[in-house]
Amino acid sequence: MLKKISQIAFAIMMVLTLASCKNTKQKLQEYVVTYNKNIAPSFRAENVTLTTARGYINDNKIELRFETGLDQNEGNKLASSISFVKLIRSMIEKDQIPRQLIEEGVQFDVYFLANDNTVLDKEVLTGESLKYILK
Fold first, then answer.
1. What is the pLDDT of residue 12?
2. Which keywords accompany this UniProt record (predicted)?
3. Buried b (16+ CB within 10 A) or exposed e, 16-44
């Protein structure tokens, strides 16, 4: 009788454990909602005026956009290519861009935009590119 109760209790615990686990797509969706609700409103970085996240569940991809007040010119492109990588590295270290999602195969397309919404710099974060950015 005790053995039967133990088996039933174990089965119930396993079902509850499996039901509480989230798959990558659920984590992706949860990250986008959390980013836009909690991180973006209080986000502060040099030249960044607005940041937003957009999720593409079917493509297993998240797009992060950083809008700036900078003009689109070669000087700003060069300067932003240096500062943008530092910003991304800092966000990964603070877990504002979760390394776990990248390691699970979620691609982050990260854009640094000029004041006219043209691209100053773009980084694609994958498991492969992560090791170069975190150097």
1. 54
2. Signal
3. eeeeeeeeeeeebeebbeebeeebbeeee
Reported as a single tens digit per residue, the pLDDT across 17-48 is 444 578 999 999 999 999 999 999 999 999 99
Strand order in the sheet with 48-56: 48-56, 61-68, 107-113, 119-125
Q: What is the maximal distance between C-alpha atoms in the chain? A: 77
Q: Selecting from 3.30.300, 1.10.20, 3.30.70, 2.40.128, what CATH number does the domain 23-133 have?
A: 3.30.300
What is the residue extent of each domain of the chain? 23-133
Mean pLDDT of 73-95: 92
